[in-house]
Amino acid sequence: MSNLLELMAGLIQVFHSYSEKEGNKYTLTKGELKTMMQEQLGDELSQCNDPAEVDKVMKSLDLNEDGEVDFQEFMLVFALLTMACHEFFRDHKEGGKEGCKEGRKEGCKEQK
């Protein structure tokens, strides 16, 4: 399988491994989203210890305002986050550095 196909399959698998834990198995609840962010994004991109921050993320992801995040909503925001991080990594690498935890954290936040 090609790298891109593996990455696509990985995104789908990660989404569903969390969405199937509570309620509708095709959407993420706020609790599932919080757990996914804590376990998958880590300290670099996640501020999940603050309930208000989780609410903000949920609201920004829940485009149809149904109280859950479906796969399409998840992918739209994930694509934007990936583009923001790509710009930072590109600029950081061109500056002669390979990136670090603090760099990723600041770079992605600057692009929001």
TrEMBL record:
- UniProt-recorded Gene Ontology molecular function terms: calcium ion binding; calcium-dependent protein binding; transition metal ion binding
Ordered alphabetically, the record's keywords are: Calcium, Metal-binding, Repeat
PROSITE patterns on file: EF_HAND_1, EF_HAND_2, S100_CABP
CDD domains named among the record's database cross-references: S-100
SUPFAM superfamilies for this protein: EF-hand
Enumerate the residue ranges of region (Disordered): 93-112
**Sorted alphabetically, which Pfam families does this protein's record hold?**
S_100 (PF01023)
- Annotated InterPro entries: EF-hand-dom_pair, EF_Hand_1_Ca_BS, EF_hand_dom, S-100_dom, S100/CaBP7/8-like_CS, S100_Ca-bd_sub
**EF-hand domain segment(s):** 49-84
Signal peptide as annotated in the record:
none
Can you name this protein?
Protein S100
Q: Which organism is it from?
A: Betta splendens
Q: Tell me the lineage of the source organism.
A: Eukaryota, Metazoa, Chordata, Craniata, Vertebrata
